[in-house]
Amino acid sequence: MSSTQNSSRRQFIAKSASLAAAATSAAYFPWTQSTFASTMANDRPRIGCIGLGGMGRGDAHEHKRFGDILTVCDVDRNHAEKAGADPNIGAGKADVCTDYRMVLERPDIDVVSVVTPDHWHVRIAIEALQAGKHVFCQKPLTLTLEENQLIRNACNKFKDRVFFVGTQQRSDRDRFLRAVNLVRKGFLGDIKTVTVGINGGDVGGPFSKAEVPAGLDWNMWLGQAPSVDYIPQRCHNNFRWWYEYSGGKFTDWGAHHVDIAQWAIGEDQPGSGPVEIDGTDAKHPVPFKDGYPTQDDSYNSAHDYAVKCRYASGVELIITSRGDNGILFEGSKGRFFVNRGKITGQPVEENWDKDQFGPEQLSELYKGKPFEGHKQNFFRCLSEGGLPVSDVYTHIQTMNTCHLAAIAARLNRSIKWDPKSEKITGDDQAASFFARVPRAGFEIPRV
Fold it and tell me: Mean pLDDT per segment of 10 residues, for the chain of length 447 residues?
């Protein structure tokens, strides 16, 4: 690389750092992917991708539109090598590795994309921030309530880094953004009930133990989770059906729909959230005792449930596996339903929001920036600064609710939550689920 190119890279990093802490009221200007690409043609951010399963490859394809992927990493070498050879990711030029620390220690990496199983997100993300990287991390960001606080503390400390969460529904203008605007602008009147349909988790097992496949570092894949023999159904895409690595559908789809619901009703800010969570109507595919599965060879996350979350305002949010996937908002003046395929109901069909859902309202939802594609917003923030549309702070409020729903379901009872102190109150057993002791050697940094 020439000295001129080195200077250009340093200028990019310095500009990103100095602007990331700036106010979010950036001036509006017309913008498209092509104009961004032209202004950054000689100064594209350099990206390291960690986690190259199905979702990881999809994210990497999109990242490559805005930057140069220099390295790909996965504890399954087969995934890493496939991504390295993919013409839309590594193109045969990116370095391939299986240890994420090799990505973080590189001074030539500006951006890290973290698309691992859920239980690895926070450790890698915090270490990436410590290493001076901007971070894109897939949802759900955290595994426990404590991890919410750990990642928030890290983002507060490293405010010169952009941190972006992969909740892409926040960039769906015609459905979810319209839904949020309808509710926030009061078109439904006083909101009474929000029903969040996220479907149920998979049921399966008992499964048999097997030899670890060649190329997979099973010990590293497990990370902070307890050491267990390899079962194929624990790994890769199926990890989300085990509480050891995820929160099941509560955090998988809840990270999307609960996020939109709380954003719409104004329960997405620090100190907000439910005060009581009723998990008495929840079933798991294996027997539970004291909130823990009694079998280790079968999927164990909840598969049939209707968990009720009550807010101090009186609004009730129901997270359920029953009915259609999507969100039903019900208020004193009307109701409507929204999911990834449609938005329906009288307020929509009669265009109650006519002339009140345009660039101004979209910019308000985008924290002062113009509406655009999801990852476009991330890469814009690298150069302009400000909080992205999918920011870590509101996402943590979503994850608080999702984790509380899972805890209440695991215990099959109602629990109380103080959203200001962020503590489960009056129930020592439920409060014990606030954090998890990680396996030795895989502790999460505290900054």
Answer: 38 38 30 36 83 97 97 98 98 98 98 98 98 98 98 97 98 98 98 98 98 98 98 97 98 98 97 98 98 98 98 98 98 98 98 96 96 96 96 98 98 98 98 97 97
Q: Strand, helix or coil at 129?
A: helix
- Predicted confidence (pLDDT) per residue in 350-393, tens digit: 999 999 999 999 999 999 999 999 999 999 999 999 999 999 99
C-alpha atoms less than 13 angstroms from C-alpha of 344 in its C-beta half-sphere: 6
**Where do you find CATH 3.30.360.10 in the chain?**
171-352+392-434
Domain 171-352+392-434 has CATH 3.30.360.10: yes
Distance in angstroms (rounded) separating the CA atoms of residues 158 and 179? 33
Cα separation of 111 and 373, whole Å?
18
pLDDT in tens, 102-159: 999 999 999 999 999 999 999 999 999 999 999 999 999 999 999 999 999 999 999 9
**DSSP class per residue in 333-358:** S-EEEE-SS-EESHHHHTTTTTTSSS
> Half-sphere exposure of residue 304, counting CA atoms within 13 Å on the CB side?
5
Backbone φ, ψ for residue 178 (5° rounding) = -65, -40
Given the candidates 3.30.420.40, 3.40.50.740, 3.40.50.720, 3.20.20.70, the CATH classification of the domain at 3-168+379-384 is: 3.40.50.720
DSSP state of 173: I
* Length of the chain counted residue by residue: 447
Q: Cα dist. 211→47, 181, 217, 218 in Å?
A: 34, 52, 12, 10
Tally DSSP H helices, then E strands, for the chain.
16, 18
As given in the structure block, the two tokens for residue 293 are 């599965």
